[in-house]
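User: Show me a protein chain along with its predicted structure.
Assistant: Here is one chain, sequence first, then C-alpha cells.
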Amino acid sequence: MALPATREQLREWCLRKLGAPVIKINVSYDQQADRIDEALERFREHHFDGVERFYLKRQITASSMTFTGPLGYTLLKGMEFTGGTSGAKGVVYTQAANNLSIQFVTTFGVFQVGEVITSSLGTATIATGGITLGDKDNGWIPCDDSIIAVIMMVPTGGLFGQGLFSFTYQQAIQALPNFPSGDLSYFFMQKQHLALIEEMFVGDKIIRFNRMQNRINIDLNWKSGIAVGDYMIIDCYKALDPETWKKIYANYFVREYTTSLIKKQWGMNLTKFNNIQMPGGVTLNGEQIYSQAETELEKLEDKLRNEFQLPPQFYVG
C-alpha cells in the first residue's frame, strides 16, 4: 500500500506495522489520535522540514468604538474627543456610514464602556462592550499558533528612506554611469557606510515574542513611530499544516515516531494485565512492549537531533 497521505491513513499504517489486524492493538481511537497529535507537534517544533521561512504582513489597525444610537453629526478625521468618566482622549480616524461607530486612536488614558464622550460637535454614549483596541493602541500585533519563532522586523523605511526622492535612490542614480565598468567597490563601500550610520542612529527594532501569548511585541514609539494603515513585515518561522501539505503524513520520522508512541501507549494499557494468561496459553507482557517502545523513541530522538534538526545559531562578537 502507498505511504499515508491523510491523518486516517497514517493511523491505519501505524496499526498495521504493530501487527493489526492479525494482532489486536489495545489502544482506543482517542488515544491513537492523541499520539498522532504528539508526533506532529514534535515534528513541527524540531524537524527542519516541519517549518517554513515566512514573512508575516500586518496592516496596523485603529481601535473601534460603538455607540448606543446613531450620532446626529459627523466626526471628521483628526477630530479630538474626550471621555467624561475616564478623562481619556482620542483622535477620530474614520466614522461608519450608519453613524453607529468610529475608528480612533487613543492619545491619553483608557476609555471606559458606558461613559459619555464629548467632542466639539456634541456628546455620545458608548454602548456596552463597544470598545475594541487596535494594534496601535495595543502596542503589539497578533499572530496565530502556527508562528513558531520570530527572527526580526523587516525594515520598510529607515534613516534614508525609500522611493524616488530618497537619499539611497539618488545615490544609486549618481553611481549608475560607473556600473558598466564593472567596478562596484566604491558604491558597495558607500552602502556599507550608510548602513553603519543607520545602525548607530536608528538601529533594529527590539522584538519580544512568546508562543503562549499569540502576539508579537515590538518595542517602538507606537504613538508617533507608526501610523494606522502602515504595514509591518515580520520575518519568522511558521509551522506547516499537514492538512495542506499532505506529504507530512508520509514523512519517515512522523511515521516511525507515531508508531512508537502508539506502541508505548499499548504497553502502558497492558501493564495492569501483566503476566495474565489468556485462553490458548498466551501471556500478556505489557512491560516488555512498553520497554521496546521507549528504546525506539530514544533512538528516534537521537536521530532527530543529529540528522533532522537545524544546528543552533551561535553569535560571534
